Every structure is written in C-alpha cells, then in structure tokens.
Amino acid sequence: MYVFSRAVNSLHSEDIKLLMKQSSKKGLISFAAGMPNNDLFPVREIDEIFANLDHETKKRCFQYGPTSGYPPLIKSLETMMKAKGMAMNSNKLLITTGSLQAISIITQEFINEGDLIFAECPCFVGALSVFETYGAEIKGIPIDAEGIDIAALTMELQRCKKRPKFLYITPNFHNPAGIIYSEKRRKQLLEILSGTGIILIEDDAYGDLYFEEKDAYLTKPLKTYKGYDVDIIYTGSFSKILGPGFRLGYMISSEEIFEKAETIKQALDACTSNFMQILANEFISGGYLQPYLCLLRKEYAQRYDLLAASLEKYLPAEVTWIPPKGGFYVWLELPSSIKATDLFADCLARGVVFVTGRTFDPESTKDNRLRLSFSNMPKEAIEEGVVLLTSVIENHLKNSTLLT
Amino acid sequence: MYVFSRAVNSLHSEDIKLLMKQSSKKGLISFAAGMPNNDLFPVREIDEIFANLDHETKKRCFQYGPTSGYPPLIKSLETMMKAKGMAMNSNKLLITTGSLQAISIITQEFINEGDLIFAECPCFVGALSVFETYGAEIKGIPIDAEGIDIAALTMELQRCKKRPKFLYITPNFHNPAGIIYSEKRRKQLLEILSGTGIILIEDDAYGDLYFEEKDAYLTKPLKTYKGYDVDIIYTGSFSKILGPGFRLGYMISSEEIFEKAETIKQALDACTSNFMQILANEFISGGYLQPYLCLLRKEYAQRYDLLAASLEKYLPAEVTWIPPKGGFYVWLELPSSIKATDLFADCLARGVVFVTGRTFDPESTKDNRLRLSFSNMPKEAIEEGVVLLTSVIENHLKNSTLLT
Lengths: 404, 404
Prior knowledge:
The structure is a homodimer.
Chain A: H1 13-22, E1 29-30, H2 43-52, H3 55-62, H4 71-83, E2 92-96, H5 99-110, E3 116-121, H6 125-133, E4 137-144, E5 147-148, H7 150-159, E6 166-169, H8 183-193, E7 199-203, E8 232-237, E9 249-253, H9 255-269, H10 274-285, H11 289-314, E10 329-333, H12 340-350, E11 352-353, E12 355-356, E13 369-373, H13 379-403
Parallel strand pairs in A: 1-11, 3-4, 3-6, 6-7, 7-8
Antiparallel strand pairs in A: 2-9, 4-5, 8-9, 10-13, 12-13
C-alpha cells in the first residue's frame, strides 16, 4: 500500500521539528492544537455515570460488542439525528473509533491508489493524511466565506480527466477556515453534484458548537436536504462534545455503503470499545449532553470573543479574517508579502505558536494563512499571545516594506 | 480496495445464518464464542482504579494522546516484556486499538493486492478476515501437536512462485487448535525463515493463560530467541487478560517497521483511547494484573478440566483431540465420515453450538474439525453441552455406518 507521512497531530512536519527543538521552553502560548479544552471535560458527569452503572452493564463494558456498534448507543444517536431532520429509516448508522476512522473506512471503501478525491482547500489535515495514506490524488477546491467556490468546483469537474470518487467537506465551522456554508451555497452544491454519481462526505464534527442559539438552524446537515440525487455520507464525532479520549464517532450512509463499511471496520478493529460506547450512551440518554453543550457553547464563545477583541485591538489592518459563528478556529489571512512559515519560526522563538496555512493545503504550498485555535486556551493567555504574534507580524511587515 | 466478507464475530457466515434463525431459542449452550468469561472480568478492580484516579489524570482520559500510545502504558508494557526476555532497546512498541488493529496495520504496511501470506491451517479467523479484506493470497500451512509442519512449510517455500511477505502464527495456545509450539519446533521454524526476508508475525494473545505455573516457560516469545536472522513482529492483547471491551493491543517491531506502522495508525484512528489506556496502565502498574492472571489461569483450567472429563466420558473413541495446556479451546477431530457443518445444523436444533472447522481454514473447505470454546461457559452447562453434542455425533456415526 501507499504510505505517506504528512502531519502527526495536526502540525506540519517541519513545524513539528521546530517545535521539538523548542519544547524545553516553558510557558509557550499555543494557538496550535485543535483540541477541546482540558478544563471543560465533563469529568464529574462521567464519574456520576460510572458510579451509577449496574453490575451487569459494567460487565458488558469489558466484553466484545457488535461491529456496527453498541445497540443502545445506535438508538440514542438515531434519536439525536432524527431531531436534526435525518431520515433514519433509509439510512444506517455505524459506530466508529473516532470520526477519523469513519473517514478511513470510507476512503478504503471507495479509493484505489491513484483515484481522485475532491477536497476543500484548505482542508482538515487528518482527512488529507488519510487520503494520502491510501494513495489518492487530491484536488483542492477553494472555499470562501459562504462555502465551497461553486465556479471553481464546476470548472474542476469539467477539467478533470477522471471522475472524483467523492467530495469531502466540513460545512459547519470549518477546520481550519472557521466558516459555515450558507443555505444558498449548500443548495448550489447539491444541485451541481446531483446525478453525477460523486459521493458527498459531510464531516460534521463541529456542528453542535455554534456560539449563539439563534444560529443553530444554520447547521442543518446537507444529508437532510430533499430533492437531490446525491449519495451523502455524514460523519459525526464525540471528540468535540464529550472528549477525543473516548475515540468515538459515527457515519450515516445508505445501507449498501454501510454493509461494506461494516466489513472494513471488522478488519480494522473488530468493534469499537464497549466501555466507551456505554459511557457515551449514558451521557446522551441520561440527559447530560444537552446541558453540557450549552456550557461548551458559552465557554467557547467567551474565548472567541476575547480572541476577537485582541485581534481587533492589536493586529495591523493588513491581516484579515472572517468572524466564525462557532467551532474552534480563526483563520488569519496575511498580506502577500509575508509567509506564515517564516512567522512561525519567529513566533516560536517569542513563545507563541499556531498552525501554518500550508498544513491544510492539499498541495502543501499556500502559505499566506495561519490557523489560531482558541479552544484549548487559558482565557488569560489570549491577549498576551496576540500581542506576541502581532509584534512578529509587524516586524515582518516592516522588513518587507524595507525590501521593496 | 479489495473487500471480502468472511466471518463476523468468529463464526462462519453460513453458521451465523443458521444461528440467527434459531436465536429466539432460549437456553442455547454455546461452545462457539472465543471470548473471555463475563463473570470473570475485574469489575471491582477497575472500579477501584477509576475511583482513585486524581483529577488531572481523569482529565487526561478525555483528551487526545500520542499516536504511538500513552507513554506510561508504553513504559509499563516495556517492563512487562523485558521480564519475558524481550530486548526493548532495539525494539519499538506501538499501542493499538486491539491486537486485530495491529494485524490490520501490519497487513496494510506490507501487503498489496495479490501478495502472498503464509498462515497456519487452521488459523485465527480474524486474521484471515483482515488478510482477505486487503486482497492477499493466503496459503495455509498445516500444524500438528508441536506447531507448524516444517516439511510442509519447506515444500511450500520451494513451490511458491512469489515470496510470501510474511508468515502469521499463534505459537501459544493456538486459536482454534489449542496447541503450543515445542521448543524444538520454534527453533526449526526460525532456522528455516532465517535469511529469507520473510517476516514472522507472532500473535501472542493467549500466552499468559497457561493452566499450570510449571508450563509458564513454554510460552517464551520467539522474538526473544537469539542468533536467527528473522524480522519478527510480536503482537499482544489486553482482550484476554483484562477485557476485549477495552480494545487494547500492541505490536513490537523494529524501529523501521514501527515508523511506517505509526503513520498507518495515524490514518486509521489517530490514537487509541486515552481513557482505556490510562485504566489499563493503572491495572498493570498498580499491581492488579498478576493476581488477576493467577485467578484467570485457575478458573480457565477448571473449566477445561470439566470439559475434558465430559469429553472423555461421553465422546465416542473415534473423536480425538490434543489436550491444550492453556488458552480457550479444544479442537476436536471427527472421523472422516462426518462433516462438522452437518453436525452444526443438528446441534443447533438440539440447543448446543460450536464453530465449524472450515471457518478457520484459509480455503474454507476442511470440515472434519470443530472448535469448542470453554472460556465463556457456565461450569454447570459443560456436561450437558457435551451430552447433546455426543448424541448428535453418535447419530451421524450410526447413519454413516448404515450408508457404507
């Protein structure tokens, strides 16, 4: 098989080398890691759930379970998805060991070496890493503030010599771009894909994490839209709404896609941990999830507000971004004279890090962007981090002006 | 990619169909499932461990961890493996989501569609399922009471048109054959593979489960043998010594093999559950594992003794088996006039099930064997199960005599 080492833990490998050199340094302010906040995990709730499990259920935690998933968890998720408008009678749900495993299974199901995949540019680096590991050719389609660029997609569809097997997108609170697809763009996309036989992979890892309740309706899954002839595989994750340490995700697809996916999962890890599935199921069915989501939305919104205030206060006007309505990320655009990779080295020396834009570029080249993650950030460090970042950016701006 | 659906949960698919039809029937005595005993899981110990975790460690349970594994667990396992004679300075350990994931990773690392794998015949069905999913050609090499048949292996090595990428074996308490490789056979095998470039996969899922302390030395990993030029990948599992619900395993290999394996794992599920790894690490480092193993050895030995006594008392002399010294399985050999598949249907109707021999045959044909698993069996059901099995076998023997 084809194996290519892209990024381990969401950082470009060269950034990692720099980071390793510097890792002894204390007090590094990190906007890099796209992970939930350690201090926000529902530790007390899971303690309570574990303490209240009856002995028979506890024994079940230790045993093998069905490859497709722990039946009560499947049921709880189906109920959740129905509430989001998903038709669960015509779809099948497969529990996976994290949603990355779902992406891996889908890739193994559809991709042979050399097959073409369309992805957004920028794109979630974990997915790029999977696609590359299985030898796919990836074509990045640009996105803007409202979603994938329809003109660019249309052109690439006409231009490409082989039909892409699927298009992979993250319509809600995109990683790294932070944007959410507009209703209009969602429909345009489905219209274009309709009847082409190109499968749409809809990664919804962040959909529950809007900052404001009034924006909830914006996150409606594309898989719930009626009247289009598009085969959509929806992937969901517990990583952002419970904890990545549970390694729990799921995929929702047609029965045909599900059956092959189940066989592949059987050969990957037989089944997902019953222990983790049972705790997660109690978390949903015991009524813990919704209040926890309310807390998370408030906490992440506060962190974003602090970050946005600092960015507005300090950053030079040449640096721009689209304000996100949810999720974990701010995606800065730098003036063309500055490269994110050059900034990274200097920022690291000053004690602040981020992820460079090229990490998320299928071609690993575009370097005028950088991703700031505010999710796992102590509130009190945000302003200092922005001040440090700003000073480095200003230095680079000054130098580039001197050079011209 | 190549996808072939062999067996879900260790039963031949046609057996499953029969079993599904009958599943409404209460009181089925099952010698089928190769899983640990529900009543033996260390529920109390894990309760205690969970209750005693400090808050910081609990938070860590929820978070992402390194792809290679939770560092303290790697350390605990390294200490364990050193005690078994493994040189951990020249080897690297990768934590996997069950040892089946290790087999899957190794297969993905070395196998392209059409590549040749040598496996034992019979062979662990989960491994066969993985090899087939990735499109390997599998050649089964027979085993006898002392291990792989050296003459047959030598002949196949001379006969095969392409070099096998690896040989996959389970030297300790084989699934399904129950045997353990003799010291002589281990050395003969290493001698033959030496210098051929054929990698040896040593699956040691059952090595800790000898019935008698005096037999412990028999389970010494082949990877600890000195003086042979064979690249060995050792796989270990927590499924039989803690619980399959944890989905925890590991592989030990050269650094070169490890590095590619880590990249593949990164694309499979990013990392294994920190939650499960932290509990498992406390189970080892807190001193719970060794006493628990002592208990398991005693319990499984008792179940085997009960089963052996019933088999000796009831079964006709034409049915034979090699007494296992550990593990979960008794591998019955039937007279040539009887097919295990025919027995299966009748046994199911009588309320007792097992796994047919052909399930474990890479070519899915050899049908004169059946596997009885005594691990997850209530002690009081063993004799009744054997009586039912015997009556069906005797009927078939009588019929086959009438026909001749």
